[in-house]
Design a protein that fits this description.
The longest helix is centred in the last third of the chain and has 34 residues, at 250-283. 48% of the residues lie in helices and 13% in strands. It is α/β, with parallel strands linked by helices. β6, α8 and β7 form a beta-alpha-beta unit. It has twelve helices and seven strands. It has helices spanning 3-10, 14-26, 28-38, 58-71, 126-135, 172-175, 181-184, 198-211, 232-248, 250-283, 286-293, 299-310, and strands at 46-52, 76-82, 108-114, 140-144, 161-166, 187-190, 220-223.
């Protein structure tokens, strides 16, 4: 069933790419077979992750970045992670509205994905979507996370280059001090630099970076204005510098090793979770539950028995 869609997607047909991503999101075992087939085609795209407080202007900034990459005849894909609707399970914001000018461009693919209540700032299906877009020939894949917080740092497990986007006068001088946030960013972008307070924000960032433990890659700070479309050439230059760093240095190689281990762990955990859930449904019946309620047996022993049966 999925073969015609797969062939069309790998040939760059955008509707087929969208359908393939949806298919992989919703079809467990068959999705695994699809990912096995396309994996050897991946590893070429530069994956850029953008995180930052809601209202920092991430979506508008991405629209400006798309223009830069388009000028170089690069194919660009955007995955915008939106909050999940508690009623439908779908995404709420629909960031494509703020990138409307690019929607019909054949070299630009924009996809909104729901978090599905996943707490890492990205959805667990995001990784597969990135790999599909990579295999389908996109040179740059930009991931926009929901927001930024102490738990929303999983973007580092997927993106080659992680950007923290901030804006002046939003209390971001406190926001960026949260544990984990400063450590994951390779680039700090102060958006809305046409507003008062942007230079102060950049100074705060420089000061905080100076007191952090030194890294082999020294994070860069850049000011941009999406309104005036300024500063983006410098950002693009930093992206290219970091991409080269990842590909050519020992530290970059270590980062790739860590990410691949995380990828295997994620897949392993998902497969294990599926196995456990299916066995649980098959083996746990009302009779066992009744025995637990009547204290004839304890739930810990039941769980141990279930594990032992699974690993036989």
């Amino acid at each position: 069933m999925h073969e015609p869609i797969l062939d069309l997607a790998l040939n760059g047909e955008q509707r087929a790419i969208g359908r393939l991503i949806s298919y992989v999101e919703n079809n467990g075992k068959e999705a695994t077979e699809i990912m096995k087939k396309i994996y050897r085609r991946t590893g070429k795209a530069h994956v850029i992750g953008l995180t930052g407080s809601p209202g920092a202007g991430k979506s508008t900034m991405i629209a400006c970045l798309i223009n830069l990459f388009k000028a170089e005849n690069k194919k660009v894909a955007v995955i915008a992670i939106d909050p999940t609707s508690p009623f439908t399970g779908g995404s709420i914001l629909g960031d494509r509205v703020r990138m409307q000018e690019h929607v019909l461009n054949p070299n630009v693919f924009i996809r909104s994905m729901a978090t599905r209540s996943y707490l890492g700032g990205i959805s667990k299906e995001t990784k597969n979507a990135v790999l599909i877009l990579d295999a389908c020939g996109y040179d740059v894949v930009i991931i926009e996370t929901v927001g930024v917080g102490q738990t929303e740092i999983d973007i580092v497990k997927i993106a080659d280059t992680v950007c923290l986007v901030l804006a002046p006068n939003m209390g971001d001088d406190v926001q960026i001090m949260k544990a984990g946030v400063m450590e994951i960013a390779d680039v700090f972008i102060v958006n809305k630099s046409d507003l008062d307070g942007s230079t102060k924000m950049a100074s705060i960032l420089h000061g905080m970076l100076n007191i952090l433990e030194k890294r082999t890659w020294n994070p860069k700070v850049s000011l941009v204005s999406s309104l005036n479309n300024t500063g983006f050439e410098e950002v693009k230059k930093i992206f290219l510098e970091h991409q080269k760093f990842i590909k050519t240095t020992k530290s970059g190689k270590e980062k790739r090793y860590i990410r691949q281990k995380e990828e295997i762990k994620l897949i392993f955990n998902e497969m294990l979770k599926t196995l456990i859930e299916s066995n649980f449904k098959e083996r746990i019946n009302n009779e066992i539950i009744e025995d637990i309620i009547n204290r004839k047996i304890d739930p810990y022993s039941v769980a141990e028995t279930l594990i032992n049966e699974i690993i036989k």
